[in-house]
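[09:14] KT: can someone run the structure on this one? pasting the chain below
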Amino acid sequence: MNFDIDCLRSFLVIADTMSFSRAAETVGRSQSTISQQMTKLEMQVGKPLLTRRKGRVLELTPEGDRFVQYARRILQLNDEAYASMRDDVLVGFVRLGVPLDFFGRDFTTWLARFKRKNPMVGIEVEANQSENLMKRSARGEFDLAFFKQDVGARAGTSMLTEQLVWVSGPNYSPDDASIPLVLFPEGCAYRRFALSSLKQHDRRWHLSFVSPSFECLKAATLEGLGITVLARALVQPPLRIIRQDLGLPRLPPVELAYARGRTNSRTVGELTTFLADRLAGAGLPA
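[09:31] RB: done, structure tokens below
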């Protein structure tokens, strides 16, 4: 019995995301093709690998849990063998620093795609506040770091300018007494710009919710615990951009920049170009 490598690849994405649609997006196939691949794989194995209900993946079956370990090993050997035969194979280890809001930008999908293409490259990712990333990058603690900087600053190479906006959930109503804020911890550029703008316009505010997690901030904002500040490209329904006529001060633009460490290898350069291209594309207005 010879397992189909493409089927195994799709199966692993489903195992990681519990989603046929995300698998289709990741491997570049239609959902119907992904479904056919899973049917074929389950016929080869002779047992169901996924528990499904009304077309949705609920969990892996016990057999699926066991099979996923073998599938990962098979794919790893397959990709390593292929990469070793290429003259342009990338190798090495990259310490990568990224801002906390990268996890609202399909960052993990992009990174997984790079890893599949370059299986001989090891990547250690740390998410942190931009100010911390900037300082530690200057000390050489990262091979590559992305961070937010003021427009015109030279801490890193600017690759994208984004407009900051006030953001709320669908049921937000302005509070003239004190503005409840949902923010990342200190060291975040979004937080610094938000508080600076409110101070300049003598607006009262208080912290309602603070978290380093983008998903936690999003959930708190959606539930009406307060308002937050994000780059315009990160605002997706049901989040809403608060209109200027509701009285909040206008926020400045911010630059998304990157800096490389002292090890300026070809691998770091390829990863920089790969991520910068996708970030620039994701930041374009719809």
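[09:33] KT: thanks! The first helix runs from residue 5 to 17.
[09:34] RB: yep, looked fine to me
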